[in-house]
User: What shape does this take?
Amino acid sequence: MIIAICFLSVICHAQNQKIADSLQKIYKENTLSGEAKLELLRNLSFNEVSDLKTSLKYANELISLSKKENNYLYLHRGYLQKGN
Assistant: This one.
């Protein structure tokens, strides 16, 4: 039972290119700001699996925007995504 729960947890948090593709549409609309945009960038960086350069672009943008907004939680998350 515990193994099934752990396996299900991994599946739920796995990277997904389809999610990244949907999030890119939201990103291109450029209507989000603040923490909503930071979260979008974090999710884009995490889920972008087909193109490493694009994933790094989103991580770097997350880092830059987090610094401007003095949001250290998302700054940490940006560096984490960049490292991954």
Confidence is low (pLDDT under 50) at residues 1-12. Residues 38 and 65 are 7 Å apart (CA to CA).
